[in-house]
UniProtKB/TrEMBL annotation, chain A:
<feature type="domain" description="Response regulatory">
    <location>
        <begin position="14"/>
        <end position="127"/>
    </location>
</feature>
<keyword id="KW-0597">Phosphoprotein</keyword>
<dbReference type="Pfam" id="PF00072">
    <property type="entry name" value="Response_reg"/>
</dbReference>
<dbReference type="InterPro" id="IPR052048">
    <property type="entry name" value="ST_Response_Regulator"/>
</dbReference>
<dbReference type="InterPro" id="IPR011006">
    <property type="entry name" value="CheY-like_superfamily"/>
</dbReference>
<dbReference type="InterPro" id="IPR001789">
    <property type="entry name" value="Sig_transdc_resp-reg_receiver"/>
</dbReference>
<protein>
    <recommendedName>
        <fullName>Response regulatory domain-containing protein</fullName>
    </recommendedName>
</protein>
<feature type="modified residue" description="4-aspartylphosphate">
    <location>
        <position position="64"/>
    </location>
</feature>
UniProtKB/TrEMBL annotation, chain B:
<dbReference type="Pfam" id="PF01627">
    <property type="entry name" value="Hpt"/>
</dbReference>
<feature type="domain" description="HPt">
    <location>
        <begin position="33"/>
        <end position="128"/>
    </location>
</feature>
<dbReference type="InterPro" id="IPR008207">
    <property type="entry name" value="Sig_transdc_His_kin_Hpt_dom"/>
</dbReference>
<dbReference type="GO" id="GO:0043424">
    <property type="term" value="F:protein histidine kinase binding"/>
</dbReference>
<dbReference type="GO" id="GO:0000160">
    <property type="term" value="P:phosphorelay signal transduction system"/>
</dbReference>
<dbReference type="InterPro" id="IPR045871">
    <property type="entry name" value="AHP1-5/YPD1"/>
</dbReference>
<dbReference type="GO" id="GO:0005829">
    <property type="term" value="C:cytosol"/>
</dbReference>
<dbReference type="GO" id="GO:0009927">
    <property type="term" value="F:histidine phosphotransfer kinase activity"/>
</dbReference>
<dbReference type="GO" id="GO:0009736">
    <property type="term" value="P:cytokinin-activated signaling pathway"/>
</dbReference>
C-alpha cells in the first residue's frame, strides 16, 4: 500500500457498515477506524433502515449487496425513499454487469468491488 | 527469527495461498491492535469451519440444493476475499460455477480440494503467527 494513510478524524465523518459477513464487518470497521472515521456496524439491510429510523445519520454507508432479511438493493431503495442523502457505496464480490446496474439503479453513489482497501475507501471521502 | 517469519510469509505468497489483500490487513495493525491480523484470521477460520460443516451436511444428504450451496459458498468466498486467501477463493469460485451448472460431481470434487487448501492455509498461518510472536 503506497502513500500515507489519511487521517480524517478532524472531519468528524461518520460511516455505517452494512454486511452480514463477520470477517467483512471486522475488516471494514478497522479500515474506517484507521482513517479516523467513527463507524457503526449492522448485519443486514433491515438493521440499516432501523438505525436510520432511530434518528442516526451517516456521511457514508458501505452497503453489501447480498444479505439475509433485507438485501442491499432493497435497503438502498428504502433509504432513498426515506430521503436519506448519505453517500451509499455498494460493496460486493458479485460484479456481473446486470447485478451492478440493478444495485446502482437502487440509488447508490458508487459501486466498489471487494475487497475494500484503505485507498479505495479514502477516495470516497474526497469532498 | 525475523528472517524465519519473513520466509514463512514469502512462501505463503509464492505458493499462492495469500494475495495482496493480506498485506492490506497487515497495514491496519497498529499499537492499539497489534494482533489484528491474527484476530481476523481466527474469526475467518471459525466462520469458515461453520460454513464447511453446513456444506458437508448439505452434500451428505444427497439432494443437491444448488441455491443453498451457492449461498453458503458466496459467504465463504466473501470471507476468503477479505483475508486474501487466494487459493481458497479460487476453489469457491469454481464451486459456484458448478452450482450454476447443476454439476453435483464438480461440486463434490471442488469442495474436497477446497477443504484441502483451507486446511493447509490454516496450518501455515498458525506457523506464521506463532513464529511472529517469538
Amino acid at each position: 500500500m503506497a502513500g500515507e494513510v489519511p487521517n480524517l478524524a478532524e472531519s468528524k465523518l461518520r460511516a455505517l457498515v452494512v454486511d452480514d459477513n463477520l470477517v467483512n464487518q471486522m475488516t471494514h470497521h478497522k479500515l474506517l477506524d484507521r482513517l479516523g472515521i467513527q463507524n457503526d456496524v449492522v448485519c443486514n439491510g433491515q438493521e440499516a433502515v432501523d438505525v436510520h429510523c432511530s434518528g442516526r445519520n451517516y456521511d457514508l454507508i458501505l452497503m453489501d449487496m447480498e444479505m439475509p432479511i433485507m438485501n442491499g438493493i432493497q435497503a438502498t431503495k428504502i433509504l432513498r425513499e426515506m430521503g436519506i442523502e448519505s453517500k451509499i457505496a455498494g460493496v460486493t464480490t458479485r460484479a456481473e454487469e446486470e447485478e451492478r446496474k440493478e444495485f446502482m439503479e437502487a440509488g447508490l453513489n458508487y459501486f466498489q468491488e471487494k475487497p475494500l482497501t484503505i485507498s479505495k475507501l479514502a477516495s470516497k471521502f474526497k469532498y | 527469527m525475523q528472517r524465519q517469519v519473513a520466509l514463512i510469509k514469502q512462501s505463503l505468497f509464492d505458493q499462492g495461498y495469500l494475495d495482496e489483500q493480506f498485506m492490506e490487513l497487515e497495514e491496519l495493525q497498529d499499537d492499539a491492535n497489534p494482533n489484528f491480523v491474527e484476530e481476523v484470521a481466527t474469526l475467518y477460520f471459525k466462520d469458515s469451519a461453520r460454513l464447511i460443516n453446513n456444506i458437508d451436511q448439505a452434500l451428505e444428504r444427497g439432494s443437491f440444493d444448488f441455491n443453498r450451496l451457492d449461498s453458503y459458498m458466496h459467504q465463504f468466498k466473501g470471507s476468503s476475499t477479505s483475508i486474501g486467501a487466494s487459493k481458497v477463493k479460487t476453489e469457491c469460485t469454481m464451486f459456484r460455477e458448478y452450482c450454476r451448472a447443476g454439476n453435483a460431481e464438480g461440486c463434490l470434487r471442488t469442495f474436497k480440494q477446497l477443504k484441502k487448501e483451507h486446511a493447509t492455509l490454516r496450518k501455515k498461518l498458525e506457523q506464521y503467527f506463532q513464529a511472529s510472536k517469538r
